[in-house]
Structures are given as structure tokens and as C-alpha cells.
Amino acid sequence: MIKLIISDMDGSLLNTDKTMPKGFFELIQQLKQQGILFAAGSGRQLASLQNSFQPVQKDMYFIAENGCITIDGSTQNVLDVHCLDKGYVKKFIEICRNIPDTYVVVCGRKSAYYEFKNEKILLQHVTPYYFHHQQVEDITKVEDDILKLAVLNLQGTASHVYPNFETYLNNFNISVSAFEWMDIMAKDIHKGLGVQTLCKYLGIQKHEVMIFGDFMNDYEMLQEAYFSFAMKNALPEIKEICNFETTFTNDEDGVKYEIEYWLSNNQEKLREYMENNEAFF
Questions:
Q1: By the 8 A CB rule, do 230 and 245 touch?
Q2: Which end of the chain has fewer surrounding CB within 10 Å, N or C?
Q3: Each residue's pLDDT tens digit in the chain (281 positions)?
Q4: Is 164 helix (H, G, I), strand (E, B) or coil?
């Protein structure tokens, strides 16, 4: 039966206006009472995730910065953390500085850092994702452990930024995390690694996990659960690798609906499904 549920945030759990489904905090507490744990798996900053789940942050787990850091919310213990080499951080920043209309956010353990002063960009694309953030004169001189670089291009990172980093794909994990965002992390670091870390820590098996996602930075994470759900609004590439698809989109509270549908009445629907598909378990 299901013991752990993990959901991506933007495009999955959250509505387009970045709001949480009504009653979701209460649902997390109800799940915990049933012995089912919940984790957020996101490209967002850890502090931002903790703030978003403030009423229940001690009742859950966090896979933040696309798998760069994983923590136990009840104890604040860091279960896993991965940082970028600062020499390459500087090199990648210089590359981005030569790409028109491109903004870099250096994601450190203490804070997020940026050079630009564009208020519109800050309000729409930084503040919603980074609870702790600050403007500095030179992001190549930041004194912090660097988890990842988040690169913003409003015309689309897949076509305008990603091609500039193709020569580094063998040595770094470079992921288009949204239309306008691209993340650069250490090699083999992704949300899937965070799921592996969490499952090992909790002693949970793949068939006991339910995961929701919609975009390419969810690709590896979704392969860590048998009950992998692509959002109805997910990319075709994500739907291809998932075993299930949500009935509703993120704007229709698709994640909340599936959790309640499958896990209500002591996981009755899930039990029925597993009995009819014994070969998979």
C-alpha cells in the first residue's frame, strides 16, 4: 500500500496563480494519521518550500532545488546535499552574461543571489520561488555553498539558453525546469536522487510511493515510483513515462483529487487495483 506521496509544485500541486488547493494542509495531516507521509519535490528553494507549507512543515519532507538538498521537516536534519564546483559556477555565469535577455540566480544554501535590479522580473520570477534572496554587485563572488544555478530567459530557455551548454551535458545535470527556467546542477543530481535518499531513509519501496509531476525536471523523479502520475497538463514526454495520468489539471486541483480518490476508505481503490494487477507487485 502507499506509504509516501511526493508532488512537484509548479504545474502540479499549485494552481497557475501559485495557490495551494483548498484544504491541502488538512489532507497532509489526515494522511499522516493514516501512516502515509508527504513530501514536496521541487526546483524551488528550501526556505520557499518551508514557507509555503508553514502550517505543516514539521509533518512532511522536502526535496528542494531539484534534488540538491533533501531534509526531514520534523527534525530539520539534512539527509543529502550536493553543491556545484565554484570554478564552473563562474564559467557558467560568464556564458549566461553573453546571452541576451538572460538572468542568473545563484542558489546558495543560505540565500539566492542575483545582480539584476529589474523590479518586474523580481516580483514575477524571483520572489515566488525564493523566500530568502538578495541583490549583489557580482554573483561570481558570492560567499556561500552553491547548490545550483537557475537561469531565466522569458523567450524560452530550451531554445535560447540550453544550446549554449550542450558541451557540458556529460559532466553536469542541465535541466529545462519550465518554459522560462533552466537549472544547472552537479552531475547525476535530480529530484529522483532525492526520492531515492528519502525512500532509503524511511525504508519505503518503489511500489509504496505515489509521485506527481508535469515537466522535464520531474522526469527522473517519476521513475522512482510505480504509482507515477503525469498531470493532465504535463508535457507529452512526461506522460509517456508515467503509469497514470491525473483526471484533472493543476488548475483543477488534480493532485488533491487523485490522492483522495485512491487513498480514501483505507485505500480501497488502490487495494482493488493492486489485486487486479498482482503481476506488477
A1: yes
A2: C
A3: 999 999 999 999 999 999 999 999 999 999 999 999 999 999 999 999 999 999 999 999 999 999 999 999 999 999 999 999 999 999 999 999 999 999 999 999 999 999 999 999 999 999 999 999 999 999 999 999 999 999 999 999 999 999 999 999 999 999 998 899 999 999 999 999 999 999 999 999 999 999 999 999 999 999 999 999 999 999 999 999 999 999 999 999 999 999 999 998 878 888 888 888 876 66
A4: helix
**Quick one: fold of 4-81+190-280?**
Rossmann fold (3.40.50)
Rounded to whole angstroms, the Cα distance separating 198 from 71 reads 8
